[in-house]
Design a protein that fits this description.
The protein is of the alpha+beta class. It has helices at 113-119, 134-147, 161-167, 172-185, and strands spanning 2-13, 17-27, 34-42, 48-51, 57-64, 73-84, 89-91, 149-150, 169-170, 190-197, 207-216, 221-226, 231-232, 237-243, 252-258, 262-272. The strands form 4 sheets. Strands 7, 10, 11, 12, 13 and 14 form a 6-stranded antiparallel sheet that branches.
Amino acid sequence: MKIQITHTTDYRYTEPLRYALQTLWLTPQSGAGQTVSFWSVGAPEKLYAQRDAFGNTIQSYTFVGKESDNVRWSLVNAAGQVDTLGVAEFVDLETLPHPYFFLRATHLAEPHADLAAFGRRFVSAPQVAGQFDMSMLLALSQGVASAVSYEKNSTDVTTTALEAFTAGAGVCQDQAHVMVAICRSLQIPARYVSGYFYAANEPDLASHAWVDVCLDVAARRWVSIDVTHSCLIDQRHVRLAMGTDYNACPPIKGVRQGGGKESMTVDITITPV
């Protein structure tokens, strides 16, 4: 499926902005599951691109305001076309962190005894060390989707996996964090993925999150699972970035001075070509 995407982030400030440093995880890459036909990113200042530790393409810019400036608005745009291939299984490059790196605890997806107990209802110990059964992992994703129902605006980006699991509600980001935390609690390498999702009847999921779970540690083989829909990723999914949790690959992260109170509006349009 060929998908056209436009992603606009509009910042407004109540006072003049003096300084801003922003890093963007807004550039998809071609890979086993997709081919990027073209892509562009625009920002208020010149962008500098590099790769992070997880192989993601990131871009950064710095804004420095003058005393005479009265900048109270800024805009970040990303747009392009991606040919999605619907491939859910893939092998990591040797340059990426070893699968066992993704067992490490992070603030948003920390292992916990309660999460491990829940996970054992769906996943048993592997017969071969480092190899995990996909059918069990899909069953676990269904269990997570049932235990943490999707409720818009029920959480925010600081909500942890255990908090969402205990509350029994969250958004796709929380469902992904719970899945990752359960896998880590069971010594199964797992990581967080950010991206886009096309569905005409689910515009709230245009900005989406799912998980990579390792199927074979020695072979570096992974599978991408959409916990919200309890399925393998398919042609509706466009992969942006991956990391240990949301904090490792948010669409935009930065710091600023001045500006007073900030308001942010995000608009994402996804159209099949």
